[in-house]
Write a structure and sequence with these properties.
Number of domains: 2
Radius of gyration: 18 Å
Pfam families: TPR_2 (PF07719), TPR_8 (PF13181)
Family: Belongs to the BBS4 family.
CATH class of the largest domain: Mainly Alpha
Largest sheet: none
Shape: globular
GO biological process, one term: cilium assembly
CATH topology of the largest domain: Serine Threonine Protein Phosphatase 5, Tetratricopeptide repeat
Order of helices and strands: HHHHHHHHHH
Mean pLDDT: 86
Oligomer: single chain
Low-confidence stretches: 162-166
GO cellular component, one term: ciliary basal body
Protein name: Bardet-Biedl syndrome 4 protein
Helix content: 55-70%
Number of helices: 10
Length: 192
């Protein structure tokens, strides 16, 4: 990336990628600097705003995360993943009503693809956890049952037990653990 930064210092995509590399290494100050540079170079690129939202969500700066996720949605109103993270952010800001609306939009705008035939699985799990944390147990159970059905479909499509395919939900490495915990809390069951 150093060579590319010298050759094309005005590439927003480059600074976005470098920023996310720093984020992956948990070097937050460098990540923010790179992503802010990307925004200054290309202010209408929704993915940079989304990545800044992720970074601020991760660091607990929920108001800033909200601002960047909102900016991303103003630039590109369809990505369901942005709505899901907006829902998580609103939950952390104790705005449960709008949080539920964001999750509903995430579910409503998700489009199955060949790579991800069940794109709403992680949204339903996050919605379940959020509802549970806000004491809305009926809503939590509803979303858990939907998630559990999608999870079982993913498991079957991948040839069986999760032990053989530990990354059934890419980007959500502890989905199986969360599934077991929520299943026990909501349905009173031991390991599924």
């Amino acid at each position: 990336y150093r060579v590319a930064a010298v050759q094309t210092p005005s590439s927003a995509e480059l600074w976005n990628n470098v920023g996310m590399c720093f984020f992956e290494k948990r070097k937050m100050v460098a990540a923010i600097a790179c992503l802010k540079r990307a925004v200054s170079l290309e202010p209408f690129q929704w993915k940079v705003h989304f990545n800044l939202g992720l970074l601020h969500l991760y660091t607990g700066q929920y108001a800033s995360a909200f601002a960047f996720f909102s900016a991303a949605l103003n630039l590109e109103p369809e990505p369901s993943l942005v709505y899901m993270y907006l829902g998580i952010t609103l939950s952390r800001l104790d705005d449960y009503t709008n949080c539920r609306n964001a999750y509903a939009r995430a579910i409503g705008t998700a489009t199955p693809t060949e790579d991800d035939p069940t794109p709403t699985a992680t949204t339903h799990l996050n919605c379940c956890i959020t509802a549970f944390n806000h004491g809305d147990f009926g809503e939590a159970k509803k979303h858990f049952l939907i998630f559990d059905g999608l999870y079982r479909t993913i498991e079957e499509d991948n040839g069986g037990a999760e032990e053989h395919h530990p990354d059934l939900l890419p980007g959500f490495p502890d989905a199986t653990e969360k599934r077991d915990i929520m299943g026990a809390l909501l349905l009173g069951r031991e390991n599924s």
